[in-house]
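Appendix B. One record, verbatim.
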Amino acid sequence: MTKRPSWQEPPTAVGQSAKGITLGGVLAVMLVPLWIVVVTSLSTPGAINRAGGLVIWPDGITFNAYEEMLTDPTVRTALVVSLGITIIGTAISMVVSVLCAFGLSRPRSFGHRFILVLLVVTMFIGGGLIPTFLVVTGLGGYGQWWALILPSAVSVFNILVLRSFYSETSAELIDAARMDGAGDWRILWSVVLPISRAVTAVIALFYAVGYWNAFFNVMLYMPTESEKWPLQYVLLTYVNRGVGMPGSVNAGFGLEHAQTAPLSLQMAVVVLTLVPLLIVYPFVQKHFRTGVLTGAIKG
């Protein structure tokens, strides 16, 4: 049992109860909507009609929505596209961010102060949507997958967090590595990255979530090419327009003619978009405290 500091007051029954109630309330706010989404996705059209919309308690379970969703070629293609964009985009973003942050963390690196100021300025001043669109389309990005990755490949905030962490790397370790003949690449790979796994994992998760949830660039650069849509844009199109997903048995029909309850199908797609994050998050969650908080406090 860890000994409490002398300056810290002992816990009281009221304080412990308040903490428990607060945590329980936060947990309910997080889990209840997720429960409703899952139950509604498994509900029959009759159960949804009786509930008048979202279903809170199961009343007739069916997997028709998931069967229709997973047999829809558009959804399968969109899932592959989303996974590809997320994996490739996260890899590109991490390589660029790690290299940039490591270079800026070395006090003797060429022009590091000027580059750092330039990066910080871009956090507050941007070119705007129209210039970005003109640059990407001018480079031939319209209708290309790389337009969904490169325009948002770098986050200055993430670079600053990594730089702050790298700046606090023990100088003795780096000097010892240099005495052994290691260059900058070797120091980064064998010294800095192994002791920075926590912050690296957290930043990678930030990038991955951003790519997985992104849909706005699709609206800009490939709004009519459904075979290149990621899963989130397929969901957005289906929910906003109130029609079946492109390529599904319900496509082109109004909601009242759908063979599967439209709301159930919408919630099934929502569940599909959440599953990868729910699988990955527990493996990265343990790094949040040592990754984000330490990187933010240092430097």
